[in-house]
Amino acid sequence: MAKIGINISTGSLQQNEMIVGIDLGTTNSLVAIIHPESRKPVALKEHDSSSLVPSIVYFGSDGKPVVGESAKQFLVEEPQNTIFSVKRLMGKSYNDVRERSSFFIYKIFEDDTERLVKIQVGDKFYSPIELSSFILRELRDRAEHILKTPVTKAVITVPAYFNDAQRQATRDAGKLAGMDVLRIINEPTAASLAYGIGMTRDEEKTIAVYDLGGGT
What we know:
Blueprint: E1 19-23, E2 28-34, E3 41-43, E4 53-54, E5 56-59, E6 65-67, H1 69-72, H2 74-77, E7 82-84, H3 94-97, E8 107-108, E9 119-121, E10 124-126, H4 128-147, E11 153-158, H5 164-176, E12 180-186, H6 187-194
Parallel strand pairs: 1-11, 11-12
Antiparallel strand pairs: 1-2, 2-3, 2-4, 5-6, 5-7, 8-9, 9-10
Helix pairs in contact: 4-5
C-alpha cells in the first residue's frame, strides 16, 4: 500500500504515515498492512495475541467505551451496556430493523421514523456510525502501537451487498475515528486481492470466494 522503510531490530516503521487495510466485521475486526519486504498482507497483532479484535463495545460507569476482548466479558455481566453486531445496523432506520429488534439485547430507540437508528445505553444515545468509530479507533491505536508511526489513512472492506447509505456510514465512521478512508472495497474483492489474484496482467482466472462470516 505504501513504500516504507522498516527497522528489523525494533519493527518500527521509518515514515510519517501508513495506509492500513481494515476488516470491520460483524463479529470480529482486524487491521493489516502490506509487509514492506515480502509484499504480502500481514494482519497486525501484538506478541502472541490474536489479530482479531471482537467487534464489541462496552460502556462502564464512567461512560467511556471499552472495545474488544476487554468488552467481551460484559456480554453476560452487563448486556444492556454492551453493544455487538452493530454492523447489522449501519445505514439503517428503525423501520428497517423493527422486525429483528428482538435479536439485540441492548435497547434500540423506537422513534418509529425513517431516521437512522439509535442505540440507547443508559441515558445516552449512539448511532451505529459512532459505535463503529470506537472499534475503528481501537484498530487504529493497535496499528500505531505496533508500527510506531501515525495511522491516518485506511482502506475498509464492506459486504458486497452494502448499499450507498451503508458504505457512506462506514466512511463516516472512519472519519470519526481520525482516518481518511481512501477506498471502500467489497470483502470478496479484498479477499481475492490478498492472494494476489489479478496482479499478473496476462493471467486470467475464474475464482470463487466463500465468506463464512459471523454476521451473514
